[in-house]
Amino acid sequence: METDPITEADIAAAEKLLAIAYTAQERAQMVGNLQGQIDSAVARRKVDLPNTVPMSLRFDPRLPGFEMPTADGVTGSRPDAPLPESDEDIAFASLPQLSGWIASGALSSRRLTEIYLDRIARLNPHLYCFATVTPELALAEADAMDELTAKGLSRGPLHGIPYGVKDLFDTRDIVTGWGAEPYQNRVPESDARIVTMLREAGAVLLGKTTVGALAYNDIWYGGVTRNPFNLEEGSSGSSAGSASATAAGLCAFAIGTETLGSITSPSQRCGTTGLRPTFGRVSRAGGMALCWSLDKVGPICRGVEDTALVLAAINGGDVNDRCSIQAPFHFDAAKGIEGLKLGYLPEAFEEGATDVDRAALEAAKKLGIEVVEVSLPDLPYGALMNVVYAEAAAAFEHLTLTDEDDTLTWQDEGAWPNTFRKARFLSAVDHVQLDRLRYLVMQALDGLFKDIDVLIGPFMTGPMLVASNFTGHPCLHLRAGFEELGTRSPASLGAGKLTTGEADDSGQKHRVPQGISLWGRLFEEGTILNLGQALEASLGVADERPRQPD
């Protein structure tokens, strides 16, 4: 492509986009030397780089001196409640309850699968939470698990349990459309690693839960996924369908992913319990890449213990994920919380905090553990957002360069198409410096968790949403209470941070759930899960169900 020669005026104009300033002499020296740099960039763009090609550099959340925990194994509870008569009560039961009923023969996997398929048929037209439903496959897998049960065989706590998987994980011969128009007819030839692991654990695939287009928000090519507690608003994202379907009792659990809030944000909106594991713990092989150094995979459930049982099934290293880390996972549902030290950032519970947030902190203080105020170093945590923009823009560069981004439904300033375009003006030098800043943030959180075992706070606690996603620390988000709110606007990344949308206080109010987050040390999910169990029991709000639409 022929272009006019670069001029000193061009350089001066470009300086504004990069917040730098050169002298006239410096521009004159540079003007004849830039074309080779540009030609190299153009030449690279001619190389096809599909989404499956990873970065050569890999992120590892472990700092020098890190010692991997050695405890391993999961011990769940053994509830002995009888099988309910109501299909709805069965649908909303916990994983330990469902597992026990299937193991005893009181409930077959086929009946449970049929209960969920019936609920999907009735409620999905209101919620838009399943992009694809696979009833024939689900019933075949359920029957296979029932045959094993009849022989006295079990594959574990998830044996015969139906679930939904976020529609950015490949499923052989089943559309995996990534929520985005350019890919809505994409049919992979193999299963993602997580799908294989869950099948090996005995779980039954109901179908693909919706994902906000290219893993952001709740808008996808089939519509807007709804919050079951308020059908007038979206479910947040990007694990929009996984949270909505789980909250509405359309599956026993679901799989989500998080780059920056995509498990915790829809869990906050829909009242589910989302566990974002330590970066590297769960394989992403066969999943759509958004940001190679940030993407994480985890369960979305209706209770804390449920997330532990699912994580146990999907935990494990994988050579096909360059950032995968082999790590043990230990959880004992009967373990107490004696001796734990809980920290909180006082400013997080001041302006902007809700009554539910403050009540959750007070409930935690009454659990009989030490609760202390903590602080973090003064760093520009929000600046790290430019890493998200750069990696995501690289993952979908071809959409920008071919103008296919125009086919995406969501086209606001904060939506991906505009973000990808802006990212072309990010400085490579600044990007390297952001990686060095990330190291300082890793040190900051490592120092924080040397003094405490767990941090508690609202979903948007100060810098923690951004900081902990970049350091790879695990987070458990659980329901803490309810508020009367107007319909909330879509999420945004456009201001350099994630926001979950402002409520329209002039409209009708809806009783909607609100949650609280617990952050913990790298690869020590068991600690935040045990504290989460205690807090869940103390708050006593986990079992309230959304009202079914008329």
TrEMBL record:
Limits of the Amidase domain: 112-465
Pfam families: Amidase
Region (Disordered): 491-510
Gene3D superfamilies reported in the protein's UniProt record: Amidase signature (AS) domain
InterPro entries cross-referenced by the UniProt entry: Amidase, Amidase_dom, AS_sf
Name recorded for this polypeptide: Amidase
Source species: Sulfitobacter sediminis
